[in-house]
Every structure is written in structure tokens, then in C-alpha cells.
Amino acid sequence: xxxxxxxxxxxxxxxxxxxxxxxxxxxxSKRLLISAGTVHVRVKKMEEAGIIKGSSLxxxxxxxxxxxxxxIGIFLEKNKATQQVLNxxxxxxxxxxxxxxxxxxxxxxxLRAKDTKHAKDLIFMIDEIEGISRTETMISLEESINDKKRxxxxxxxxx
Length: 159
What we know:
Blueprint: H1 8-19, H2 25-32, H3 36-48, E1 68-76, H4 82-90, E2 95-100, E3 107-113, H5 116-127, E4 132-139, H6 148-158
Antiparallel strand pairs: 1-3, 1-4, 2-3
Helix pairs in contact: 1-6, 2-3
């Protein structure tokens, strides 16, 4: 599959959508001085090319009472247990991200909890998953950088 060519208008549309995926195409068109139809066609083409994959909703977990974030490095007994462990982790809704990794851990995941007691219960639950030999937990004190735009602009500059 050949690489999809983005131009400056596409970059500007993506820039706006990264800030707010729900912004109406008419608002984007007014900001960029192009027609709403042009915005629609360009977004559709980027979706068809796989550059835009769905849209996401950002929740304020603190306002919902989930202020505790931990990262858990998982050591497996055997690599062949990877998929089953991932399936079991997926059944724990508080595990919000999981990566198969190289290096120290076989799997690295992110966990959201209400407080330390809740996190402890979840970590113990993860420790009990068949195929896991042990875990190592790191507590997030603060999310300092979460910026999709900087990477997007670097990618645009390379194209």
C-alpha cells in the first residue's frame, strides 16, 4: 500500500480534530476558509486510508473518582502464555492499556483505580492470573506529558 500524501489543509484538519474530535465540519471549514464538503471529503479519505481510526472520548478520571494510576510490569512463566494473560487482563476493566514488550517485562500495562486499597486488590488479582510468575508495580505521581500534537507536527515535517 502506498503512503497517503497529506497536504497542509489535511494537517490543519487533523490539528483541529486532535483537540476536539467532535468539532463540526462546518466549524472546521470556517476556521480554514474552505467548504464543509471539502472537510468531509478529506476526513473520509483519511479514514479510508487508515490515517484516522475512529474517534475517542477523553474522560476526566479524577472527576470520576479514579485518581490512582499504576504501571505494572508483568513477568510470564512462559512466552506461550502471552495471549491468555492478555485475554485475562482484558477482563479487568481497570487495566486500560497493555503492551507486549521486549526487555525486562513480557507485558507492561496501565491500571486506574480509586485509591491505594483498590489498586492493591487489582494488583493482587493480576498476580493470580495463570501464566504470570510475578509483577512489578510503579505508581504514577503525575502525568506530566500527554501531547499528541507534538508528534503529529514532527511527522508532518518529515513528510
